Description:
Layout (H helix, E strand, L loop, with lengths): L2 H16 L5 H16 L1 E8 L6 E8 L2 E10 L3 H9 L3 E3 L11 H6 L6 E8 L2 E11 L6 H45 L4 H15 L4 E7 L6 E7 L16 H9 L3 E3 L17 E9 L2 E10 L7 H29 L3 H14 L11 E8 L7 E9 L2 E9 L3 H20 L4 H15 L6 E9 L4 E7 L5 E3 L5 E3 L3 E2 L13 E4 L5 E5 L1 H4 L10 H12 L4 H15 L9 E8 L1
Parallel strand pairs: 16-19
Antiparallel strand pairs: 1-2, 1-6, 2-3, 4-5, 5-6, 7-8, 7-11, 9-10, 10-11, 12-22, 13-14, 14-15, 15-16, 16-20, 17-18, 17-21, 21-22
Amino acid sequence: MPAQTKMEKLFFYAAQMLNSTLEYEELMKQILCLTLEATDAEAAMVYRIDPHVANIRARFRRREDETLQYFKLPKGKGIVGWTAEQQRPVIVNDVTTDERFLKDFEDIVGLRFRSVLMVPLFGRGQLIGVIEAVNKRSGHFTDNDLDLLTTLSSPCAVAIDNANLFRETRRVARERQLLFEVGKKLASSLDVDSSLKMILHSVRDVIGFNAGGIYLLEEDSESLYTVYAEGYCEEEGLDVALKFGRGLVGWVAKTGEPIIVPDVTENKIYVNCHHETRSEIVVPLKIENRVLGVMNLESNRRAAYDEGSLNLLTALAGQAAISVERAVLHEKMLSNQQIQAQLSVARQIQLTFLPKHDPQLAGYDISGINIPSGEVGGDYFDFIRIIDQHTGIAIADVSGKGIPASLIMAAFRASLIAEIRNNYTISTICGKVNRLLTESLEEGNFVTAFYGVLDSKNHVFTFANCGHNYPVWLRADDTVGYLTEGGLPLGFSDAAAYEERPVSLLPGDLLFFYTDGVTETADDQEAEFGLERLLAALRHSRHLPAREIHRRIYDEVREFAGERHVFDDLTMIVLKRE
């Protein structure tokens, strides 16, 4: 058969095989099979090279045996190390005369090497691996073999990149599903121990670890105690690492900063509490800047954790911190017989959810305020930095009052922040938060909310209104519009859909967000302050700074209120394009 015809058939066969799967391990088997067929070799190997990993990962297969062997090699060793460093192919038809050859390697794979042909794999402009043919069955490897394998290397590299992308996409999907499931369970539980145990078990399925634990700070903030840990032996002395500031766990508890250690033997802070540990990742459990505890994972593999692991653990740690905070609040309520004391504690927790400062945005004047009624309520607002020039603005009101309303608001806020971190669209964020609340809340409870993102560079505000009071859009020409697009209040129906709308803000435009405590304030004749009075107040004060506008409106509402009126929480946000 002519060589060209054979080559064409081989490439057609290669295209069929490489396009037949996106499963990573199955693809590696296909590449090994192609290497054997293209070069008529006794065995084949494929090496994967990652610049962030110290070793080269390899898979080996004999022609007569479809079973794969897996092993690792240090970078820079052997002929494969030379091929990777030089980034060019090589033929060695007598390995016994080549000083680069690692003879011990024959014992590892159980095969005597006579000749090898190696070709580097390049994906997206960088080296990602090497493919190797071992022992030409008929004679020596030739330049024709080299040309065949070199030509095959390009589609092999593309297939590997695609399989990696597929694997990464699937991993991200698993992580998002994990965050959703954990958030749903935490929202319905006040049992800290079982919640944190559930989180650690869930992490094992996505990240993996050989030893790990979740630890909380003692009230004196000078030591930690174990809530749940697994993988450690009693004689390994885990408590040694739980001193505030000592070891990686203690260091993260003290600084509030996460840490990834690819090789614990090279880290001076590390305290050995699990003898097989080679790498470790530790993240704090924080609310605002307050550290509540630490989550720690240890692996017997070097460089087992990366930035993806850190992002997932940080999100889970944030949910765990809220669960701990809610549980602490619940325990305080149970132990306190005075209802006013219970409400006071809840109010203090609620205040930690509110922003401490107004954001400073070039070209904008923005300010928000929450004025409590004296009782714990369900009002909430927040300014959320997303990326440069993109700021989230949220305002919400929970049905009901008291402790139940504050707990629902805590669950809403946790869900909202978690979904925003996933970089979903605004309509998708609202849909996911709605489904979580629908599953978690008792019938009759719901949340009205409004969430939007201000692009302060392009002066575009994109929003979705989830059954909340319509924010007022007082334009520069004194005409009035309302931000109405969105959907039902959150928690009504898990089938609710939400739409989002962008609006362009011109110089002099003003947006006013509020809860119903503003417009429903009543006088002694039970007439409400209402929307018309609100619009008049906005027009009269629009020339003032944002902070002065909401203070002026609050003064007018207080003056209007009758002596018998029982105030609700009043929450307002003023946004002006200067």
